[in-house]
Amino acid sequence: MTAQTDTPGSVTTVYKVSGMSCGHCEGSVSGEISGIDGVTSVTAVASTGEVTVVSAAPLDEEAVRAAVDEAGFELVGKA
């Protein structure tokens, strides 16, 4: 899935994360993923379990999984 972004050449990826139920959960996941090199934007939505990540280049899924684990949730995969 690709979304319009301000930066040409950026990559938008939507991940499915289980266990998010509130705004605090969204903030925790967003904060951890934002720490990955190259990430320019993160939007987490607890009601759908989707996390949209915009980055300068494709991300290593294991790095995203580790960040989601650190936040206390589980990365199910790409949506």
Q: What would your notes on this structure say?
A:
28% of the residues lie in helices and 33% in strands. It has two helices and four strands; from the N terminus they run E-H-E-E-H-E. It has helices at 23-34, 61-70; strands at 11-18, 39-45, 50-55, 74-78. The longest helix has 12 residues, at 23-34. The protein is globular.
**Rg value:** 11 Å
Biggest sheet statistics = 4 strands, antiparallel
- The secondary-structure element order is EHEEHE
Distance between the termini: 8 Å
Task: Write down the overall geometry.
Answer: globular
| Fraction of helical residues | 25-40%
Could you name the ranges where pLDDT drops below 50 across 5 or more consecutive residues?
A: 1-5
User: What structural class results from the helix and strand content?
Assistant: alpha+beta
Query: Number of DSSP strands?
Result: 4
Summed over residues and divided by their number, the pLDDT gives a mean of 92
What is the strand content? 25-35%
Fold blueprint:
Layout: E1 11-18, H1 23-34, E2 39-45, E3 50-55, H2 61-70, E4 74-78
Antiparallel strand pairs: 1-3, 1-4, 2-3
How do you describe this structure in short?
With 79 residues, the protein is of the alpha+beta class. Helix content is 28%, strand content 33%. The N terminus is likely disordered.
List its salient traits.
four-stranded antiparallel sheet, single chain, disordered N terminus, 4 strands, alpha+beta, 2 helices, 79 residues
